[in-house]
Specification:
Number of helices: 2
Oligomer: single chain
Distance between the termini: 42 Å
Largest sheet: 2 strands, antiparallel
Helix content: 40-55%
Radius of gyration: 22 Å
Order of helices and strands: HEEHEE
Length: 105
């Protein structure tokens, strides 16, 4: 559930900003799509535009989350499960990720 929140909430906020900026510059009654005038009402155009911006922003957030969760390569620190108080396992990286270096003897 937290992953969906990490993807959908920031993308929702950024989509709102993107739509505001876009429709500040573009009149929905003068919008063309594939060479044809968009004949939807301004409210429908704003709604469709918002969901389109949200989808693109969500795809970007999802890609970022995907790249963060994948190990960088063979030399990436291993991931070990850590039990939390609720009984749900939490995934944490080893000390190497947090900058703690241990001498190997």
């Amino acid at each position: 559930m937290i992953r969906w929140i990490l993807v959908l909430w920031p993308s929702f906020v950024v989509a709102g900003v993107a739509e505001t900026l876009f429709f500040t510059l573009v009149n929905p009654r003068e919008l063309y799509l594939l060479g044809n005038v968009v004949e939807y009402s301004p409210l429908a155009t704003y709604s469709i535009g918002f969901f389109a911006f949200w989808a693109v922003c969500a795809a970007s957030s999802l890609l970022s989350l995907y790249l963060v969760e994948k190990p960088a390569g063979a030399d990436a620190p291993p991931v070990r499960p850590v039990a939390r108080g609720s009984g749900t396992p939490d995934v944490r990286r080893t000390d190497a990720l947090h900058g703690h270096h241990h001498a190997h003897g």
